[in-house]
Design brief:
alpha+beta, three-stranded antiparallel beta sheet, 6 helices
Length: about 140
């Protein structure tokens, strides 16, 4: 294993992101994939919403979003309804069970992040957050 001085910034950042993602995924349990959990979060935070919005947020094709929503719907986590603004379109929203599972997913994510970043001091966490915000293309 190479030491941190030999790794490039992109390797270090990607390694840290993979480690955080593994920690978060391990808190999901065996019956919910990280991809499905992300879809559940998108629907919960933007729903009721159209499948195209889900696809955009997950950066996948609309057909793939249909497959993801089908899986979530078969588990009773989401339901489809006609879009009140366009009778040809459908929206997707969380069911009560989906809301409960999303709350568990969000809690696992918070706990995993707190544990992961817990090795940093408060000052280091603040500095890291500021640096990452500068690099985030969503930020102005």
């Amino acid at each position: 294993m190479r030491d941190a001085d030999e790794l490039s910034l992109d390797e270090l950042l990607m390694g840290a992101a993979r480690a955080l993602r593994r920690r978060w995924a391990s808190g999901l349990g065996s019956d919910l994939s990280p991809h499905d959990a992300r879809a559940l979060r998108v629907i919960g935070h933007h729903g009721p919403t159209r499948l195209g919005v889900v696809a955009d947020h997950l950066r996948i094709a609309p057909r793939s979003a249909t497959d993801v929503v089908d899986r979530l719907e078969s588990r009773g986590l989401v339901h489809r309804s006609p879009d009140p603004d366009d009778r040809r379109a459908m929206t997707v929203a969380l069911t009560a069970v989906g809301e409960s599972v999303l709350a568990e997913v969000d809690e696992a994510r918070r706990e995993g992040a707190a544990d992961f970043f817990g090795s940093l001091t408060e000052r280091e966490r603040t500095s890291l957050a500021a640096l990452l915000a500068r690099l985030d293309p969503r930020e102005p």
